Amino acid sequence: MRAIRSPYDGRLLAEIPDADANDLDQAVERASAGQKEWRLMGPAGRAAALRQAAARIRENADELARIDALDCGNPVKGMRFDANLAAVLVEYFAGLAPEAKGETIPQAGGKITYVTREPLGVVARLVAFNHPLLFAAAKMAAPLAAGNAVIVKPSEETPLSALRLAELVGDLFPKGVLSVLTGGAELGAGVCAHPGIAAVSVIGSVQTGKAILKGGADTLKRSQLELGGKNALVICPDADVDAAIDGAVKGMNLGWTAGQSCGSTSRVLVHESLRDRVVEGLAKAFDAVRLGDPSDEATEMGCLSTEGQYRKVVGYIDQAIAAGAVTAAGGAPENVPAEGFFVRPTLLTGVSADMEIAREEAFGPVLSVLSWRDEDEMLAVVNGLDVGLTASIWTQDLDTAMRLTDRIQAGYVWVNDSSDHYLGAPFGGAKQSGHGREECLEELLAYTEQKTVTIVPRTRKTPIT
Ligand code: NAD
User: Fold this and answer.
1) Residues 428-463: pLDDT tens digits?
2) Domain 232-415, what fold?
3) pTM (2 decimals)?
4) Considering only CA atoms, which residue is closest to atom 44 of ligand 1?
């Protein structure tokens, strides 16, 4: 049994068993049987079930948000947003179900060649701890819409809302089509190696993405990888400075996940002419953030989700200070509301591009400020890492915006904006931030296989052209 505790006050929330190899075999067997029925329901039937699932998520958004706030320490307001967003994404993929369609290829002599898209079979989705309900609900949607059965494995740290989700929507699908299995990396590895599972996709760290590819190699699993980043926000000399400061704060996703979002800004590269103004503005905004009980509606930022996260983030801050960085805001765990895993929004100056804090994902409320004078040198810093998930550019000059968006290596680039996702807009990483794109048609198609058919009519006397 795994004890699930609140990261805010340490109280025991639940004890959850880890699924073992036998549980996994049974889930795959049931998924495989249920998928045959689910597939035959066709796009319209599947879309109807998914729309009902979205409605139930929306009806229960408050309860789901409260579970997440208790379990992961993110403020309940942000988790209610997540529950409603999950419903929107489930509806979006319901609407896309008929788009898993094929094509015809012209042939001579009355032959016909056409291509259909079939579901893969059983798909597993391993998800991260930071948006527990959003990931569990939204990531089941595309493979289900395409006619697959889905096994969701929530993070072992924050499994509660995924279990509640299964209770709320499980009866809408044929038996076995949706399973939630709880457990950690060992279960994840079992999923990767299982011959009855066709695809394993993960939302997680770069290291886990590599383990998934290795673990799935013997069974040649398909996979989509949504991995980590070290996201840069670039402020050009002509930027609207106040808007850029607001954008950098928003880009941190402090009120959503205390900075524990893959797309969060963690490096600000500001032109040296604006550095002091930007540091002053960011420090002021960081100091004003009200930390508190994640279940309280008034809380602006919660705590980190696990002790491991807390230690990692504090370790990065300590390391940065030892290497010469200076805290312009936050830092020490003072003035926090409880014994929970709180870290104040922390602004580090005096950071150079070679420091660990400038190169590695801390995954928390820590923002490093680096300044630049030469555009090529700035781009070398932005692109000088193995990862490239998001970037944000602040300029009022269209040429500069076009030039920088072209040269920055990232899967998603905002100009004069940060953080926001847009329905249907592909989200995913360049370089080691991942493979594939989600929240868009490509996500649906990733859970299909093309089948090409050529038919030669033998009954006609004269060929038609
Ligand atoms: P994690 O990689 O530790 O775990 C993710 C999931 O994979 C969990 O369900 C975990 O149990 C499982 N897992 C871990 N090791 C495994 C292994 N060896 N084999 C199979 N499964 C394994 O990630 P986390 O700490 O939960 O989340 C934080 C990371 O996720 C950060 O790096 C963050 O950037 C990334 N993330 C990416 C996105 C994105 O869309 N790109 C979104 C959110 C989080």
Assistant:
1) 999 999 999 999 999 999 999 999 999 998 875 665
2) Aldehyde Dehydrogenase; Chain A, domain 2 (3.40.309)
3) 0.96
4) 262
